[in-house]
Specification:
There is one protein chain. It contains eleven helices and nine strands. The chain has helices at about 20-30, 45-50, 75-95, 110-115, 140-145, 170-175, 215-220, 225-235, 235-245, 250-255, 260-270, and strands at about 5-10, 40-45, 60-65, 100-105, 120-135, 155-165, 180-185, 195-200, 200-205. Strand 3 (about 60-65), helix 3 and strand 4 form a beta-alpha-beta unit.
């Protein structure tokens, strides 16, 4: 396939909140290698804050995390545009056998994806989840390329007040979708969904695969969050999580595995050659 280069759209759902997620996503995209002679570029769309959404002119899309409830946008212009965008991506992929659009959803976007596809329930947790935590790979997850070389359990950054539970087996079957990872421990007997693949082109994670040591230290050093972790997990667990930040087999490994694998696979399948 020839063209003018690989175009990536980053959909920002942080609603103008100060965050580290967007920096991390931009860095991962910028670090991604494209084929020789093929330019890779990205544009950012502040969807919640500025009510803008990309069209189908991009090759790859990454939809970010964000604050608050995944239901607070109901009836708003930006949410309507967001779901219409997903309609357009699905229609494009269904009508093009030799060229697809690739989409990755993170945290808040994962909950929005769940609402859109209706494959599970999105509910408020009994308490917030925050920290560097372990997650289990399912049999499908162990075979999925985005988790290649990750151990089971693997560790990732997790910040959320909501969770995705009670998967609907009928809808998963209709979509030919797979649960790739689940929560290690939860307040429910059935652990929350942490990663789902909708199709070869579309996947998402409830955790933050983009998180790096600097972003985690930013969060851990805030008094409110430090107190929260200690109150929920204990002081020993807080310092254990701090130690996890710099360990090569924890969030550093997840950061250099999940999103890079998604991007590299998409680029390979797009089969770009110099124009």
């Amino acid at each position: 396939m020839t063209g003018n280069g690989i175009k990536v759209a980053i959909i920002d759902l942080y609603n103008n909140e100060v965050n580290e997620g967007m920096r991390c996503i931009k860095e991962i995209v910028s670090e991604t290698k494209s084929p020789a002679g093929v330019n890779l570029s990205y544009n950012v769309y502040e969807t919640r804050f500025k009510d803008v959404i990309p069209g189908t002119e991009y090759d790859i899309y990454i939809s970010s995390g964000g604050p608050g409830s995944p239901f607070e946008g109901k009836g708003t212009s930006w949410e309507n545009k967001y779901f219409k965008f997903l309609d357009d991506i699905l229609a494009f992929n269904q009508n093009n056998s030799d060229r697809k659009k690739y989409v990755f959803f993170i945290c808040h976007s994962f909950q929005m994806m769940t609402r859109y596809f209706k494959f599970a329930d999105v509910e408020k947790r009994n308490s917030k989840s925050f920290g560097v935590l372990p997650f289990n790979l399912t049999d499908a997850g162990k075979k999925d390329f985005i988790f290649e070389n990750l151990p089971d359990p693997f560790y990732a950054a997790d910040f959320r007040e909501y969770h995705v539970i009670n998967p609907d087996k009928k809808i998963f079957s209709e979509l030919s979708a797979d649960i790739l990872a689940t929560e290690y421990e939860d307040d429910y007997s059935e652990n929350a969904l942490m990663a789902v693949r909708i199709s070869p082109e579309i996947a998402g994670t409830q955790f933050h695969p983009e998180a790096d040591p600097n972003s985690m230290l930013y969060h851990f050093k805030q008094d409110e969050r430090k107190k929260f972790i200690i109150s929920k997990y204990g002081e020993d667990k807080y310092f254990e999580m701090l130690a996890f930040i710099d360990q090569q087999d924890k969030i550093k490994l997840t950061r250099k595995t999940v999103l890079p694998n998604f991007l590299n696979s998409a680029i390979d399948k797009l089969n770009f050659t110099p124009a």
